[in-house]
Amino acid sequence: MRVIGLDYGARTVGVAVSDGTGLIATARETIFREHENQLRETLRRIEALAGEEHAECIVLGLPLHMDGSMSERAEKTAAFGKKLETRIGLPVILQDERLTSREAQERLRGMGVPSSEWKEREDAIAAEIILQDYLDEQKRKTDV
Q1: Quick check: 76 and 39 in contact, CB under 8 A?
Q2: In the chain, N or C terminus with fewer CB closer than 10 Å?
Q3: Which parts of the chain fold into alpha helices (H)?
Q4: DSSP label of 56
Q5: DSSP E strands: which ranges in the chain?
Q6: Contact by Cβ (8 Å): 82, 94
């Protein structure tokens, strides 16, 4: 089972892809756009990736507040998820993404990547963390 993970931001979308077994997530790329509402090319790229990877679903990080309530960004993300689901025809699963950006930064720091290069990689790594959290949850459910 191949799954695509996304970290949706105002001007970027980090992308990660699972391996064929659905156990391991790997950061793939970051999609950049100039304006938040210019989604046509972003949707086109995600659709192409879903086809290339033969994805069965998309996991989209949901940026909740620390207390679990919906943030304004979470509402925009959920709306993007609906657009994505309509356009691509794959199920879009919302996954709690609290603290993934911080964890991505810690990983980059641990790998010795200069902070000037973080923006190019941070969102894809956050997508990897979101997707890996989802894959781990699915594995726990089947192991029970």
Answers
A1: no
A2: C
A3: 40-53, 72-88, 100-110, 118-143
A4: S
A5: 3-8, 12-18, 25-32, 57-62, 92-96
A6: no
Residues 6+ positions from 45 with CB-CB distance below 8 Å: 31
Kindly report, residue by residue over 4-54, the tens digit of the pLDDT.
999 999 999 999 999 998 899 999 999 999 888 889 999 999 999 999 999
User: Maximum CA pair distance of the chain?
Assistant: 45
- Measured distance CA(66)–CA(97) in Å, rounded: 10
pTM, two decimal places: 0.90
Judge contact between 62 and 134, C-beta under 8 A. Answer: no
Q: Please give the single-letter amino acid code of residue 105.
A: Q
Question: Position of tokens 């199920």?
Answer: 91
Residues in the chain: 144
Backbone angle region of 16, left / alpha / beta, with phi > 0 → left and psi within -120 to 50 → alpha: beta
- Return the SS3 of 95: strand
User: How many structural domains compose the chain?
Assistant: 1
Q: In CATH, what number is assigned to the domain containing residue 126?
A: 3.30.420.140
Q: Specify the 3-state DSSP secondary structure of 16.
A: strand
- Domain hosting residue 105, numbered range: 3-143
